[in-house]
Amino acid sequence: MLLSSGRQTVDTYLCRVKLIPRQDLTALLSPQQILCGSSHSNRHAIHLLLMLGKTVGGRYQIIRYLGGGGFGRTYLAEDWHLPGKPQCVVKQLKAHVTDEDSLHTARRLFDREAEMLYTLGSHDQIPQLFAHFVENQEFYLVQEYIEGEVLSQELKSGQIMDESLAIALLIDILTTLEFVHQQHVIHRDIKPSNLIRRKGDQKIVLIDFGAVKQIGGQPIVDSEGQTSITVAVGSSGYMPNEQLAGKPRYCSDIYAVGIVGIRALTGLYPNQLTDDPRTGEIVWRDKAQVSGELADIIDKMVRYDYRQRYQSVAELLAVLKNLLPPSHATVIMPMIKAAGLDGQSVWIERGDELFRQQRYREALACYDKAIQIVPDDYLIWFKRSMALENLQAYEEAIASYDRVTQIQPDDYLAWFKRGKALENLRRYEEAVAAYDKVIQIQPENYWAWHDRGRVLEQSQRFDQAVAAYDRAVQLKPDFQLAVDSRKRVLSQLRQVDELYELQHYEEAIASCDRTIQATPDDSLAWLMRGMALEKLHQYESAIASYDRVVEIQPEDHLAWFKRGTLLEQLKRYKEAVLSYNKVVQLRPDNHWAWHDRGRVLERLKRYEAALSSYDKAAQLRPDFRTAVEGRQRVLNYMRQGHAQSLPIKVPSVRAKV
Fold first, then answer.
1. CB 633 within 8 A of CB 648
2. CB within 8 Å of 635: residues ≥ 6 apart
3. What's the CA gap between 99 and 102, in Å, rounded?
4. Is the pTM of this model over 0.70?
5. CB 631 within 8 A of CB 618
6. What is the pLDDT of residues 310-368, one digit of tens each?
């Protein structure tokens, strides 16, 4: 009956069981949520019916639905374990995963975020966390209920705030945000609906931290077991570009607070503002009655390039407080004027929600509706492009990214994403050009250099690919992906010497093995193989490689020398002497070979022969200090008559390349 009868049946049922007053039904469900024949809306209604009156966590009874979205639902509840049954807020977060490993990861992430919320709740203007638990594979947070009004109600469409009150509002928000950042937390979803003006003292309370929404987002475990989300957490209009790209910074929160300030001063929603086509900065001053000092501060808060914004809340608060009059009392904010509002924000928010739910085709339709209203909003075009990309409609996505770059030519992220889409279509030349554009805008973008290298590698331009990977590693030496990519290409090119110089010894050995398989008598490959094995301390295998070298090239003095060094290292002194003998036979002027021969003979207590070798090394190079010291050491013992009885402390072998 309920599944097919729509709003009227739900209305009657709710009132009959007295779970919720009739006048509160509009807060529970909007007319759009339950339509006759809509299974999704009816499922939503049934879920709410089942939750109302339910007790979770053994003590929190749900009494009212407060709101929700793709990440979960929020309810008002009563705590039946405390006197007077005080009210609290219960947030139900459902992880969209079912396998044990993913649920375990979700639980770990949930516990971590709960610990963060517990710490933050020590601040007077952040709700306290009372409890967190998992029940029936659903995650619950229980927080302090803040009685008051969300700022979005104060800043209704067209309402404009006085400058002094706007300054007070910004300072109030930022004072709390400073504490948040001191805990090494980025809020990520600051907007008017996440700011509550508390009824008792009129202070602004900061709620709904974006990090917690990861629990209730789409699949949170990737193929490598790393926590991830489908799209950046945040809200349209209040989220800067770097956050949209999934790389939020502390100044991303400062950007969001700046947008709140602009909305308070202009009465306009973010989507009603335009950008300067030359700079990409938001144009808003002409729509507000504001002093140059405050306008300059807000402009810096909302710079397109995060590096040009205030980098800390403390720095920002210092300049804002200079604008305050000598004394100030917080009052309820009067509103004046009115400006028009179109439906663009509704379509954008609906599209963002559908995107978070991975319903990309439906999200695309919403973004198209928003574009019909405001055709030149580059951010909507960008979101439209991402939806198309997720649908693997790469040709259309490229056309959409083209529109972004027409409106905002220096949007590096659009060029970057365009390059990736072209790469998926194997249009490598165009992809390289797109990555080149990113590098032109951001020369130190190591990801762009890496991806440029990858495309060059795919198009078999290996030397250029190595150069691109080199640049990525120069910019970020611990960029392991670029290091591995460079190793792969060098191995394909069989550039063993470069692999060796870069200390990629295992890859150098593998490359040598491929060469040897094709050409078994390649003495250079055997030599490099031995040298790489030596660096990995695999001495026996290295000696075997050097044996193969001298078998192919009996006069390769370097192989004989390195063979002798390793034999000495393994204390196989008699064999080492034979190798050094071969070196001095091939290269009589090699002072190091004479020196090392002397050292091994000294260890064998053949002191006359050792002295002769040290003498020869010193003759070839008079300033050869270790040879002179070795000669003197042997002479001293021979003069004292201990040559055949006392051990001599001989310096350890030093490996030489």
1. yes
2. 611
3. 6
4. no
5. yes
6. 999 999 999 998 887 554 333 333 333 333 334 677 788 888 778 877 788 998 999 99
